[in-house]
Amino acid sequence: MQKNYVASAFLTIKDSQVLVVHDWKNQKKIQVIENKDWLTILEIFVHEQSVKAAYEQFQKIQVFPVLESVQQQCIKARSNSDDFMVFVAHKVLKVLKKGVFSLLTPEEQVDLTANSQETYQVMRYLFEQGTFTDKHQDIKSFDAFSQSVEDMAKLGLLSPSIDTLDLGDLRRRFPICPLFGFTRGTPIDRYYLDKFIGEIREQVAGNVLEVGGVLRNREVYQFYNATEYQTLDIFASSGVTLVGDVHDPETIRPESLDAVVIFNVLEHCHNPWVVVKNIYSWLKVGGQCFCMVPSAQKLHDVPGDYWRPLPDGMKQLFQDFSQQKLHVYGNPLTVVASFMGISAEELSLQELDDFHPDYPVATCMIAMK
Q: Which among 18, 161, 198, 201 is least surrounded, fewest beta carbons within 10 Å?
């Protein structure tokens, strides 16, 4: 059974490459369009939703030259604009003269939807100066066309048409697992924490303090370069060596630590900026803090749940450190999985490891004093 689709993309051109922009900053996540026919397919799905009807239009368009009237409209739309971007959606094809933020300014938009519906040739001319490297450009059969449509949908250029989504097991009022996915396997954020630990394991060395952890974590995380391992918590329990408040600067002697490990704790701190300031003072010069926070996760108020620091927020929190290195993990699928309590074992490694900067699940920081 063939699916129906609608166009859903922002495109621009830079250094003769046609790029799909996946985030507002136009820097972090882009996709190069290597097949010129994809531009035509994308434009067809502005107006058509059926794959069969789209293929019929595609066959007709291949034999027609770009109309002069379309060329003139496109030249006018692109004039005096080095930052132009093309926005395609259901029944919409617009040139945004000053990039994506022109969406908020109608006078900076040129609506070419009517021209597109008449000819399906607007995209071909707007990006005529683009270079395309795909050696298999020719789409000469319905099967090849359908495969291209499927590939474009996987890349987010096409989305299922309205009222055709099958939410299946996600159409529910309650999560699949209310305990982050523990009842089904490994929670999504723990999968990402393990990846981060793999990156930092050799760097966690010397006199180490873990905030909110227990002694056995040294072996669990394989922090074997730690010559001394202390743990700090506000409650006394087995495996906690220091009972105290991380908000209190007197808890630890200044410049006494080589490393601080603080995983899934800052969101529970009512004043995280105070906590980070204290960690800075406790570290020796050259010492490092290794921090992980959830960016997309259900509330877990033990003892309180105050924040969801995002990547820019983490940079701000650790701004006084001489060096910062962010590790950010997540994509739209894993954001949904995290909130719904779907376990890591229920997704493929590719699904887990694919990264989209606008959808962080876990944000990690390595900061050096």
A: 198
Q: Each residue of 324-348: pLDDT tens digit?
A: 999 999 999 999 999 999 999 999 9
Q: Is 329 exposed, middle or buried (0-12, 13-18, 19+ CB in 10 A)?
A: buried
Report the helix count and the strand count for the chain, using DSSP H and E: 12, 15
What is d(CA 87, CA 95) in angstroms, rounded to the nearest whole number? 6
Run of H or E residues at 228: strand 226-233
Q: Is the pLDDT of residue 215 over 70?
A: yes
Q: What is the dihedral of CA 350, 351, 355, 358, to 10 degrees?
A: 170
Q: Side chain identity at 208, as an amino acid letter? A: V
**Closest listed residue to residue 123, CA positions, set 159, 87, 161:** 87
> Distance between alpha carbon 297 and the CA centroid of its chain, in Å?
15
Which domains are assigned to the chain? 5-160 (no CATH), 188-368 (3.40.50.150)
CA distance 275 to 289: 12
159 touches 153 (CB < 8 A)? yes
Rounded to a whole number of angstroms, the distance between the first and last alpha carbons of the chain is 58
Task: Count Cβ atoms below 10 Å from residue 286 Cβ, excluding itself.
Answer: 10
pLDDT, residue 26, reads 44
Per-residue pLDDT tens for 89-115? 999 999 888 877 778 888 888 899 988
Classify residue 189 by burial, with Cβ atoms within 10 Å: 0-12, 13-18, 19+. buried
Q: What is the pLDDT of residues 77-91, one digit of tens each?
A: 666 666 788 999 999
Burial class for 302, CB neighbours closer than 10 Å (0-12, 13-18, 19+): exposed
